């Protein structure tokens, strides 16, 4: 039996469940249960907060997980990725108030930037030779500039309408993300075999969708 952690409720949940079903795996799911067992494949599914998934897979509490690369890389476990899944595509971008001028990332030198992604942003800015003050906040990052809490933000963007609605404009793409399958790095031979079967089915599903 192999154990897969997916997001309990959020932007990854439906596509994760659909992918498992399209792999021909059947299971009962109720919104109250935090785990379920497949009926026709030796798979147990755990439903968790997405932020907890990388750590659980790293520690072996779960063998496999489905999570956004943004969360995986921010958690510090990029090496757990085994398969790109092609959904939940988004980008992590820097944005400033629309009324502010902007030439290049060097303009952010010494500025206050609010973000939920201090690790990814810190590495990006270091690579650009820019020193800024990062303020880590866990949600509603987009409101920070308009209430004077920060000069800029770095947050997830997909359509861009949230930035627009908060008077912000995107000035740099810091990181591109999509959902990925992750795996513990010390799987038993038996679990490794189950992982390979799952990857084979996921690749077939993606080919059939194209
Ligand atoms: O409760 P839990 O901790 O499990 O969930 P969560 O609230 O932390 O995450 P959730 O469900 O919002 O997102 C899960 C994953 O979906 C993220 O980690 C990304 O990998 C991916 N994803 C894809 C997104 C978006 N698109 C997205 N648009 N995550 C967040 N957003 C936010 C964005 O920050 C903005 O505030 O949605 C808002 C709207 O975006 P626009 O640009 O379309 O307006
Ligand atoms: Zn989360």
Structure in words:
With 210 residues, the protein is an alpha/beta fold. It folds into 2 domains: 2-88 and 178-209, Periplasmic binding protein-like II (D-Maltodextrin-Binding Protein, domain 2, 3-Layer(aba) Sandwich), CATH 3.40.190; 90-177, D-Maltodextrin-Binding Protein, domain 2 (3-Layer(aba) Sandwich). It is built from 6 helices and 11 strands. The chain has a 6-stranded mixed β-sheet, sandwiched between helices. The chain has a 5-stranded mixed β-sheet with strand order 8-7-9-6-10. Strand 2 and strand 3 form a beta hairpin. It starts with a strand and ends with a helix. The structure holds phosphoribosyl ATP and zinc ion. Phosphoribosyl ATP binds next to helix 3, strand 9 and helix 5. It catalyses: 1-(5-phospho-beta-D-ribosyl)-ATP + diphosphate = 5-phospho-alpha-D-ribose 1-diphosphate + ATP. Its EC number is 2.4.2.17. Pathway: Amino-acid biosynthesis; L-histidine biosynthesis; L-histidine from 5-phospho-alpha-D-ribose 1-diphosphate: step 1/9. Keywords: Amino-acid biosynthesis, ATP-binding, Cytoplasm, Glycosyltransferase, Histidine biosynthesis, Magnesium, Metal-binding, Nucleotide-binding, Transferase. It is found in: Cytoplasm.
């Amino acid at each position: 039996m192999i154990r897969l952690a997916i997001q309990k409720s959020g932007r990854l949940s439906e596509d994760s469940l659909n992918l498992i079903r399209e792999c021909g795996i059947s299971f009962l799911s109720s919104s109250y249960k935090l785990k379920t067992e497949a009926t026709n494949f030796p798979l147990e599914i755990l439903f968790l907060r997405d932020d907890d998934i990388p750590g659980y897979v790293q520690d072996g509490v779960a063998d496999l997980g489905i999570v956004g690369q943004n969360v995986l890389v921010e958690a510090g476990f990029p090496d757990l990725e085994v398969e790109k899944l092609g959904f939940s595509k988004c980008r992590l971008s820097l944005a400033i108030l629309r009324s502010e001028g902007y030439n290049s990332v060097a303009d952010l030198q010494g500025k206050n930037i609010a973000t939920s992604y201090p690790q990814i942003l810190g590495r990006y800015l270091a690579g650009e030779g820019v020193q800024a003050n990062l303020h880590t906040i866990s949600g509603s990052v987009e409101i920070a500039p308009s209430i004077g809490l920060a000069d800029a933000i770095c947050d997830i963007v997909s359509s861009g309408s949230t930035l627009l609605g908060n008077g912000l404009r995107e000035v740099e793409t810091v990181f591109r993300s999509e959902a990925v399958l992750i795996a513990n790095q010390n799987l038993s031979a038996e679990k490794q075999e189950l992982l390979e079967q799952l990857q084979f089915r996921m690749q077939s599903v993606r080919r059939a969708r194209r």
